[in-house]
Design a protein that fits this description.
With 498 residues, the protein is mainly alpha-helical. It contains 17 helices and four strands. Strands 1-2-4-3 form a four-stranded mixed sheet.
Length: 498
């Protein structure tokens, strides 16, 4: 699915968990599954449950008769492609030297250079940088898919995937973990099947395998814990179609810190201005840091130096007041909502003008002030290591562990509903699937807004959320669905203008 909730783990717990999972060959490690050895590729989907009523649901989505053998084969093919995506991504990151395209796509997906070393990396860790860490995770997720240890249900059911908060019409897929490795497949997956979008089918299964590997739904506090960013990386590195919803859940990150000059006391200019803006955003989100707000004047004076030192101290970096690649990398990772100097000004036009590109543009063109993940519960990561412990799944609430500006979230929801209604008017299978995914995002975003202090008692927000849920529940009834979506937008505008 694409639903997420905030990760409750501390950085220490996350680091410990990562070390336990990610030991090199020859060392003790946790078993990815109870099975002894991986089966041959033909047996990747050894357990597949699909009843006659389940097939009826799938047939209604793809618009033609099908069989259990056909849908099982489709899942097996998607699992095989997902294994290829994961292993090829890991291989690209393990290559020495790493290719320019690998570096570019990694920066785009994870917001830091591939050589970035996070402050929470334990001294006992065997991975040397973020590139190696992501490669380990992709390899282990591929191993889970390759092992034939997952029980697949062709149509989700709470009895099989109790952690999933939505019903199958509201998600692509949803997984359970612990002693059971289960993936429940939803309507959007079968829409992708019906439209021939094999890349989305494969990346969906890789996404769920990452959840199973982490043993949790990942909470949005950083890109390296956001399964959508892993999807973005492997899809881009393989030159495949990036689904608009995945692109929305992990928008392109800011340029590499290497593009920022090293600045220190006495420096002036745009880079100092960006530094001051990012330090202010970071300290505002962390009052306990007691780092004071700066006047944004593009001058690196004593107050800016003191704030830089405060950030370095909190991030576990060398405290020298000099802002170089390591400090830039960590600061950009901690403040993805802030546009860098290279992002100021008109955004480049997309090269192609397909409906999918327009959806992607509608998301990315205004995401400068957004943490940039999905939003039906939250998302995954911590600027670093996700860890077992938080319930929920692939749908997610948006950004910064719940610290989003709710007014901005409402504005984004309004834009997303506009795009969804436009796609529905085209009356195409892929447009319908994209619109469903967008409305699922809006539903989660509205849930997050309803939980904020600012909007918790605003009837228009609860009304918009209620109609979004109704639209998802009645998706096949176009008249009811369209009426609900109109009401969602009307209530959102009412909340924005109150």
């Amino acid at each position: 699915m694409k639903t997420y909730v905030a990760n409750r783990a501390t950085e220490l717990e996350q680091s410990t968990d990562e070390v336990l999972y990610e030991q090199p060959p020859g060392r003790a490690r946790r078993r990815v599954s109870g099975a002894a050895a991986a089966p041959p590729p033909a047996q990747r989907v050894r357990s597949f449950i699909c009843s006659t009523p389940d097939l009826t649901q799938i047939e209604a989505i793809i618009g033609r008769p099908t069989t259990q053998a056909e849908v099982r084969a489709a899942v097996a093919a998607a699992a095989t492609q997902a294994v290829t995506l994961g292993t090829s991504g890991a291989s690209a990151l393990r290559a020495s030297p790493r290719a320019a395209a690998t570096r570019s796509f990694f920066q785009e997906a994870f917001g830091v250079p591939v050589e970035f070393i996070p402050a929470w990396r334990p001294t006992s860790a065997t991975w040397r940088d973020m590139g190696e860490l992501i490669a380990i995770r992709l390899r282990n997720a591929a191993t889970i898919l390759d092992g034939g240890w997952i029980r697949y249900f062709c149509w989700g059911d709470p009895a099989h995937c109790p952690e999933c908060p939505q019903s199958p019409p509201g998600y692509f897929a949803c997984s359970s973990f612990g002693l059971r490795h289960v993936i429940c497949i939803g309507a959007a997956f079968w829409r992708a099947f019906g439209s021939g979008d094999t890349a989305t089918m494969a990346s969906t299964l890789l996404h769920e395998a990452l959840h199973i590997y982490f043993g949790t739904t990942i909470a949005d506090s950083g890109r390296s814990g956001n399964a959508n960013c892993y999807e973005r990386f492997v899809i881009r590195i393989n030159g495949l179609f990036l689904h608009p919803a995945t692109a929305a859940n992990c928008p392109p990150a800011a340029p590499a810190p290497g593009n920022r000059p090293t600045v220190a006391r006495g420096t002036r200019g745009p880079a100092v201005r960006e530094l001051q803006v990012r330090l202010n955003a970071w300290s505002a989100a962390r009052p306990a840091s007691r780092v004071p707000q700066l006047t944004v004047d593009s001058i690196f004076g004593p107050r800016t130096e003191a704030s830089a030192r405060g950030f370095q101290r909190a991030a576990g970096l060398i405290v020298d007041g000099i802002v170089g690649p390591q400090t830039w990398g960590r600061l950009i990772l901690e403040t993805p909502a802030v546009a860098g100097e290279s992002e100021i000004g008109p955004r480049a036009r997309l090269r192609r003008d397909t409906s999918q590109d327009r959806v992607r543009q509608a998301y990315t063109a205004r995401r400068g002030a957004s943490r940039g993940m999905l939003v039906a519960a939250s998302q995954d990561g911590s600027g670093g290591l996700p860890r077992a412990g938080a319930p929920a799944r692939r749908s997610g609430t948006n950004g910064s562990g719940g610290r989003h500006d709710p007014h901005q979230m409402l504005r984004l929801a309004n834009e997303e509903i506009n795009v969804a209604r436009t796609l529905l008017s085209a009356a195409t299978p892929i447009g319908n699937a994209n619109a469903l995914r967008l409305v699922s995002i809006v539903r989660g975003r509205l849930g997050a807004v309803a939980g904020s202090v600012q909007y918790s008692r605003v009837p228009a927000v609860s009304g918009a959320r209620r109609h979004a849920m109704s639209a998802l529940s009645n998706w096949s009834d176009s008249n009811q669905r369209d009426m609900d979506l109109g009401n969602v937008q009307a209530y959102i505008l009412q909340a924005l203008n109150r």
